[in-house]
Amino acid sequence: MLNVSAMPLNQSSGIGNHSAPPWFGGIMVYHPIIIPVMYGIISVIGLTGNSLVIYVVMKYARVKSVTYLYILNLALADELFVLLLPLSAASIGLETWPFGTVMCKIALYVDTLNQFVSIFCLTVLSVDRFVAVACPVISVNRRNTRMARTVNISVWVISLVVSSPVVIFANTDTADQHETHLITCNLHWPEHVSSTMGEAWVIYTFTLGFAVPLIIIVTCYSLMTRRLCDSVKSNTVQRNQSRRNREKAIKKVERLVAVVVTVFVICWLPFYIFQIANLSRAFSGLELDTAAGLFYFTIILSYANSCCNPVLYAFFDENFKKSFQEALKIRPKIRLTKHLAPSQAYNTFYSRRTELVTMTVKSTVPMTTADTRMDTLKLPNCVPTPEMSKHIGQEQSGPSARKHFQQEI
């Protein structure tokens, strides 16, 4: 059996993403260029995307709801992880660990911490959606940003505790293989129970960091689906507009959370299947290159999850999409007919064919946050009529002009 302490970081620590097969004899077969490059790509995308998520949630009011605070917590965990991922890339590229014992403990600890915080955040998101749908009274009274912050802190405290064995057993080691002096960063279990502890750790992380949370998530979504179906069947009276809008908003958030959870499972399930199968020696008959390929595929897939979520938010959440566009200064080009005085505001109308018609509303009142809410309206095939232009050109106060303008529309 291979001495796992003779493996570089990300190949043999026995934690989360670092559990190398004990039957990988000799030096692990890997490509010291391709894998670091892939790690680097994940790190760059993850840093950019998660930084944008953090910035957007902190800056824009429309993404400061309870759900988005939980998403912020998830982004913080992914951000912390991808910050240290370049160390793993460098370790594989250099075929040694040059960063010392302290950074070894930190890198392995953050890896495990990311695993637990991520799945715990997704569990909290799922429970939160269930409460919002199944217990609306409790949702109104208890679901608030203060409670969300308390839950987020609790997630980190619990994750720090369940990941604590890594700080104790992570260490560097020196080995000479093929006339090469290697410094490695791994988990070093007590020698007399090394094999047993390694297997126990895989089961421990799988149970607490995947299986149990996934059962809770599936249960919440099953109950939610049943509750929504029962609500539709029992509702024989036409619902009012506000209730329909609320249910539509709830379904959008549920879809976002469901997609994020599904992607998490897709990214992590192969890794855990590999780990559990490895415990039963299911791969012992495979060629070394094939086994190494499977091993690295599952690791890279699990790492990729840390850069997927911002992309999902941009595609499946309209609030995030708009906030991303504002943060990145992505705005539609507007053709102005003339220069406007500082006291004038703009109202831009978009048709279904995205044709732009720029109009000017003069106002004697300084622009405020409330005044700018009429800046952009989406109207089908909106073309200014002579009557509209007449009213728009009138000198009126800000609120009065806006009221008349709305009536004309």
β-strand percent reads: 5-15%
CATH architecture of the largest domain: Up-down Bundle
> Which regions contain 5 or more consecutive residues with pLDDT less than 50?
1-29, 332-409
> How many domains make up the coordinates?
2
CATH superfamily of the largest domain: Rhodopsin 7-helix transmembrane proteins
Radius of gyration: 27 Å
Q: Widest sheet: strand order?
A: 4-3-5
Outline type: globular
- Quaternary structure type: single chain
Structure description:
The strands form 2 sheets. A 3-stranded mixed β-sheet has the order 4-3-5, with no helix packed on it. The protein has a two-stranded antiparallel ribbon with strand order 1-2. α2 (66-94) packs antiparallel against α3 (100-134), α9 packs across α10 and α11 (386-392) packs antiparallel against α12 (398-408). The protein has helices at 34-59, 66-94, 100-134, 136-142, 145-162, 164-169, 194-234, 241-279, 288-316, 318-327, 386-392, 398-408, and strands at 170-177, 180-187, 344-350, 356-362, 376-378. The relative contact order is 0.12. A hairpin with a 5-residue loop joins β3 and β4. The N and C termini lie far apart (78 Å). The chain has 409 residues and is mostly helical. The protein has 2 domains: 4-327, Rhodopsin 7-helix transmembrane proteins (Rhopdopsin 7-helix transmembrane proteins, Up-down Bundle); 344-408, no CATH class. The protein contains 12 helices and 5 strands.
